[in-house]
C-alpha cells in the first residue's frame, strides 16, 4: 500500500515547530532556516499563520518561541496519555521489522518486569510473558535499567560508561544460553528513565551484521517513542 500524501505547506509549518526542543526555548530566523532547510521568506510566511493560531510567538529581535496553543495541546495530551497505547504499536512494528520478540521492561526494585511485548509469528522465537519478573543483573534490558537509573553520570564500571555513552546494551546467552538480546533506554522529556526497549531471539540469529541492523532500528524506535512519551 502506498504511503498517504500529506499537505506540503502543513508539513513545512510543522517542521518549524519540530525545531523546538526542551532545552531550546527561542530560535532566530536563521537558526530555524538552518534546522529546516527552508528559505527565510518561506519561514516568515508560515510564521504569520502559526502566530495567528497561537503556535508561535515572535519576541524581540525576531526571535521565535512556542506559543500558548502548543502548551494547551500538550496539556491535553498529558491528561489523555496512555503508556500502553503508545508502546504497543511501536513494539508490533519493531517485532515485524526484526522478525524477533520486542519487549518493554520497567525497573521494580532489584528486578525488571516485562510490561509489554510483541512476538513474531515464526515458530522458533523468544517467548516472554507480560508481567514476568526477572533479575536486573542478567540480560541487556537489565543492564540498561541499572545503568540509566543511576543518578551519577560517571558512576559505575567502564562497561557502564560505554553503555551509557552509546545507549545500547547487548547480552549473549546471559540468562538463557540460547537467547540473545539488544536493549536501549526510553527516557522522559525531563531525562528520567521510563523503561528499556529490547529485541530478543535465538542467539544464532544475533550475529554481528544483525546486531548492527537491530541496533539502528532500536535507536530509531527510541527516538520516536521519546517524542511521544510525556511523564
From TrEMBL:
- Report domain IclR-ED positions: 69-231
Can you give the residue ranges of the HTH iclR-type domain?
A: 7-68
- Which InterPro entries would you find in this protein's record? GAF-like_dom_sf, HTH_MetabolicPath_Reg, Tscrpt_reg_IclR_C, Tscrpt_reg_IclR_N, WH-like_DNA-bd_sf, WH_DNA-bd_sf
* GO biological processes: negative regulation of DNA-templated transcription
Xref: Pfam families: HTH_IclR, IclR_C
- Has UniProt tagged this entry with the keyword Transcription? yes
Write out the GO MF terms. Answer: DNA binding; DNA-binding transcription factor activity
Alphabetically list the UniProt keywords.
DNA-binding, Transcription, Transcription regulation
Q: Under what name is this protein listed?
A: IclR family transcriptional regulator
| Annotated source species | Cohaesibacter celericrescens
Amino acid at each position: 500500500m502506498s504511503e498517504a500524501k500529506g499537505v506540503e505547506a502543513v508539513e513545512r509549518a510543522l517542521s518549524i515547530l519540530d525545531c523546538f526542543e526542551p532545552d531550546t526555548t527561542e530560535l532566530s530566523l536563521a537558526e530555524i532556516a538552518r534546522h529546516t532547510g527552508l528559505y527565510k521568506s518561506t519561514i516568515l510566511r508560515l510564521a504569520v499563520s502559526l502566530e495567528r493560531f497561537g503556535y508561535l510567538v515572535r519576541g524581540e529581535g525576531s526571535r521565535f518561541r512556542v506559543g500558548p496553543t502548543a502548551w494547551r495541546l500538550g496539556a491535553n495530551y498529558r491528561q489523555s496519555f496512555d503508556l500502553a497505547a503508545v508502546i504497543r504499536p511501536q513494539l508490533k512494528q519493531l517485532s515485524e521489522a526484526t522478525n524477533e520478540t520486542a519487549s518493554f521492561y520497567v525497573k521494580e526494585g532489584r528486578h525488571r518486569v516485562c510490561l509489554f511485548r510483541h512476538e513474531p509469528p515464526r515458530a522458533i522465537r523468544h517467548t516472554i510473558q507480560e508481567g514476568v519478573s526477572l533479575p536486573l543483573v542478567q540480560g541487556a534490558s537489565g543492564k540498561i535499567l541499572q545503568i540509566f537509573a543511576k543518578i551519577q553520570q560517571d558512576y559505575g564500571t567502564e562497561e557502564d560508561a560505554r553503555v551509557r555513552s552509546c545507549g545500547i546494551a547487548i547480552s549473549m546467552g546471559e540468562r538463557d544460553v540460547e537467547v540473545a538480546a539488544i536493549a536501549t533506554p526510553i527516557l522522559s522529556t525531563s531525562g528520567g528513565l521510563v523503561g528499556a526497549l529490547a529485541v530478543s531471539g535465538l542467539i544464532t540469529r544475533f550475529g554481528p551484521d544483525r546486531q548492527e541492523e537491530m541496533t539502528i532500528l532500536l535507536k530509531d524506535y527510541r527516538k520516536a517513542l521519546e517524542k511521544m512519551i510525556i511523564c
